[in-house]
Amino acid sequence: MVLRLRGEGHGWKGRFRGCGYRWTLSRKAIIDVLSSTKDHMSAEEIYNSVQKNYPSIGLATVYRTLELLVEMRVVMRLDFGDKRARYELAETFSSKDHHHHLVCNRCGKIIEYTEFIEDEVELLEKTEKGLSMKYHFKIDNHMIQFYGLCKACQ
Amino acid sequence: MVLRLRGEGHGWKGRFRGCGYRWTLSRKAIIDVLSSTKDHMSAEEIYNSVQKNYPSIGLATVYRTLELLVEMRVVMRLDFGDKRARYELAETFSSKDHHHHLVCNRCGKIIEYTEFIEDEVELLEKTEKGLSMKYHFKIDNHMIQFYGLCKACQ
DNA sequence: ATTATTGCAAATCGTTTGCAACTAC
DNA sequence: GTAGTTGCAAACGATTTGCAATAAT
Question: Which pLDDT score, from 0 to 100, does residue B51 have?
Fold first, then answer.
């Protein structure tokens, strides 16, 4: 019987090493922050949160790490029309809690919805397959956003 | 028999006046550029294009106009993960030529697809209705993007 | 020991803004 | 004439980068 090694809870270390990267405190701290919330955090928010436990980690490192994580497909970079980029663990984004977004064009309010998703997902999978074949794209995520006016802004 | 006034080809003037804005040369020039292409142009690209015919129009005006047009729902602001915002006439975006996007995570290549759309649209309309009711959102557009690796980048 | 990673401060770059001149109405 | 609009240059803010110090392997 062989033990399944899980490393830092998700095999993070192995995943980094496998890509030729090192497993560092900064990276762990940032992934921890992202793991601890479902919010769409900006780089600066992540930085502030990381600072509470590791005051020595700099903002540049947060940016560099996020870039790396996006490249590794560990996090998803989102855009809601406010200027800053927002980040969310891909795992959170794509799991059974998969959700899409409703964005208010005036105040920027964002509503995450998970209802009506099953049908969407089913259809999207079909579409995904069709697109993959036709365009030879290897698709690994998708995003749906509805734009309009929220109750308050109408 | 009453004539239908069309103004500048789309009743632009009336549309602006109706919102309390003025119909100016800059605005016409920018809308003309957007009307002449299906591309997703950045503010600077629009500026460069406008410059060819109207060298006196400044970049700041382009930004201010685009902001106004987004607010008026005349244009749709898009984001493909390269830093700059990109713009497309809402009309182009939402008409029968309605399309969605495939975005390559590595090289940023964008493929517009129009196939597989009918089913999507049908479903989205249903979803839209459901979301509107539940969240009291007035939805007037949507966006679907698939992310992955294009043929060349795999 | 070797090489990736980091913090810091400076630089970059898309976008916004203050203001006086200008233009649509 | 009265606002809304514009060009210009300066300001802004998010993100990136050079570099010497530091940490992971």
Answer: 97
B25 touches chain A (CB under 8 A): no
- The nt closest to B63 (CA vs C1′) is C15
Rounded CA gap, A130 and B72, in Å? 35
B53 or A79, higher pLDDT: B53
> How far is the C-alpha of B81 from the C-alpha of B47, rounded, in Å?
21
pLDDT of residue A4: 42
CATH class of the domain at B97-154? alpha beta
B101 and chain A: CB distance < 8 Å anywhere?
no
Average pLDDT over residues B31-37: 96
Q: Which ranges of B58-140 would DSSP assign to H, the alpha helix?
A: 59-71, 90-94, 117-135
Options 1.20.140.150, 1.10.10.10, 3.10.290.10, 2.60.40.10; which CATH number does A1-94 get? 1.10.10.10
Percent of chain B with pLDDT over 90: 49
CB proximity A17–strand D (7 Å threshold): yes
Task: Say how many residues make up chain A.
Answer: 154
Nucleotides of D under 7 A from a protein CB: 4-10, 13-18, 23-25
Domain boundaries defined on chain B: 1-94, 97-154
pTM of the predicted protein model: 0.83
Q: Which residues pair with B102 in a beta bridge?
A: B111, B146
The end-to-end CA distance of chain A, in Å, is 62
Which stretch, A9-13, B42-46, B103-107, has highest mean pLDDT? Answer: B42-46
Q: What pLDDT, on a 0 to 100 scale, did the predictor assign at position B97?
A: 67
The DSSP secondary structure of A90-146, one letter per residue, reads HHHHHSTT--EEEEETTT--EEEE-TTHHHHHHHHHHHHHHHHHHH--EEEEEEEEE
pLDDT higher at B98 or B29: B29
Answer yes or no: is B27 CB < 7 A from strand D: yes
